[in-house]
């Protein structure tokens, strides 16, 4: 039996806690319009100065972190080098993720009022981070439209396999969980881009780099996919030139490792924003756009990292409802939306580990990867992790 109900008639909320609260199909007091009306109108306004200023600031963070690491390597004893490099890789990975988030804002139209400016900035940033800008923006829009939809969902759609299956049992073991994490960290992002892994089953094998991937793109999107591929090729050329000048190890240490950290952050953050054992998924009959959008979970990596990542982690509920809102508006709008949604607002701020919310986030990530593997139907008709 799924977690949606039990023989004793207990509700999902009683069994799993407040995250299981799901908006009724006939809800009249909470609609997209009512949520919008609960937010001060000025928070929807986009600013060229603020948005472009954040790009400039993020580029300064990238440059400053790189220079600081090089200086540390010069002045500290040689045995400190591994620690310096590890610190550089982690923090530069956060810096790269911050720039990636701004490019993601461009794809949504939440960066400025100009589509041309958005696309130029987004294409430049995403290409420099080895992401196909237009291609990913197109499929990401589908993710927003079909959040937690079992048939049409775009990312991290869970399996419906039996929990008694040997492969599922292994995946939920400690060894299986760590294997999943390592695969996601090293291969997850580009496996998704190349094969649409974790997306809807009917779209399996479809590539973000193929203009003819009909499950992902419409014929009119072909040139946008080609433009995305061009950006990737140009960045590949830049990296090849850098290798010829400074060597492969320098490019790997200074760019590729932080880039891999960024890719892992993207996969992990998306997973955590929409996955918790107490949050349901829906089949076509039970799904609505609002139910999907309100299945998004606000979390936290700690004040500094949340700020560095432009609050994509701790204001994601608002972002999913109003993706065209600038991120600085979404953060300010979150308290208004939380108050209006009441029990339907989802957040999970885990216990800090060693006083660190950042470490606590990754502890929660491990727990979710460990528990949230397959879903099955509950008595309420929703699909719950089991």
UniProtKB/TrEMBL annotation:
Q: Does the keyword Transmembrane apply?
A: yes
Entry keywords, A to Z: Membrane, Transmembrane, Transmembrane helix
The GO terms describing molecular function are: oxidoreductase activity
InterPro entries for this protein: FA_desaturase_dom, Fatty_acid_desaturase
Task: Note the Pfam families from the entry.
Answer: FA_desaturase
Q: Where are the transmembrane segments?
A: 230-257
Residues in domain Fatty acid desaturase? 84-347
- Choose any GO biological process term that the UniProt entry carries and state it: lipid metabolic process
Do the record's keywords include Transmembrane? yes
UniProt superkingdom: Eukaryota
Q: What is this protein called?
A: Fatty acid desaturase domain-containing protein
Question: Which organism is this entry from?
Answer: Emiliania huxleyi (strain CCMP1516)
Lineage, uppermost ranks: Eukaryota, Haptista, Haptophyta, Prymnesiophyceae, Isochrysidales
């Amino acid at each position: 039996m799924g977690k949606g109900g039990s023989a004793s008639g207990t509700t999902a909320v009683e069994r799993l806690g407040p995250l299981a609260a799901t908006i009724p199909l006939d809800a009249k007091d909470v609609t997209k319009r009512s949520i919008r009306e609960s937010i001060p109108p000025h928070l929807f306004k986009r600013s060229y100065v603020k948005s472009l200023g954040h790009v400039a600031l993020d580029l300064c963070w990238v440059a400053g972190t790189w220079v600081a690491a090089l200086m540390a390597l010069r002045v500290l004893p040689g045995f400190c080098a591994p620690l310096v490099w590890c610190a550089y890789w982690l923090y530069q990975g956060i810096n790269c993720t911050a720039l990636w988030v701004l490019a993601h804002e461009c794809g949504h139209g939440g960066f400025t009022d100009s589509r041309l400016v958005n696309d130029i900035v987004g294409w430049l940033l995403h290409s420099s981070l080895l992401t196909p800008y237009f291609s990913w923006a197109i499929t990401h829009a589908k993710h927003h439209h079909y959040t937690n939809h079992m048939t049409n969902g775009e990312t991290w759609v869970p399996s419906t396999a039996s929990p008694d299956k040997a492969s599922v049992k292994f995946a939920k073991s400690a060894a299986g969980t760590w294997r999943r994490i390592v695969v996601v960290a090293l291969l997850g992002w580009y496996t998704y881009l190349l094969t649409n892994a974790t997306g809807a089953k009917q779209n399996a094998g479809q590539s973000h780099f193929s203009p003819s991937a009909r499950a992902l793109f419409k014929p009119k999107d072909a040139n946008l996919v080609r433009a995305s591929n061009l950006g990737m090729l140009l960045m590949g050329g830049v990296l090849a030139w850098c290798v010829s000048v400074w060597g492969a190890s320098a490019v790997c240490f200074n760019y590729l490792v932080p880039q891999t950290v960024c890719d892992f952050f993207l996969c992990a953050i998306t997973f955590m924003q929409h996955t918790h054992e107490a949050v349901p998924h829906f089949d076509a009959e039970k799904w609505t756009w609002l139910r999907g959008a309100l299945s998004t979970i606000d979390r936290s990596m700690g004040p500094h990292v949340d700020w560095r990542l432009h609050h994509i982690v701790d204001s994601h509920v608002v972002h999913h409802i109003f993706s065209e809102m600038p991120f600085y508006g979404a953060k300010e709008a979150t308290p208004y939306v939380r108050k209006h949604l009441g029990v339907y607002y989802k957040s999970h701020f885990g216990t800090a580990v060693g006083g660190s919310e950042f470490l606590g986030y990754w502890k929660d990530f491990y727990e979710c990867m460990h528990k949230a593997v397959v879903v099955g139907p509950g008595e309420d008709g929703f699909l719950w992790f089991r």
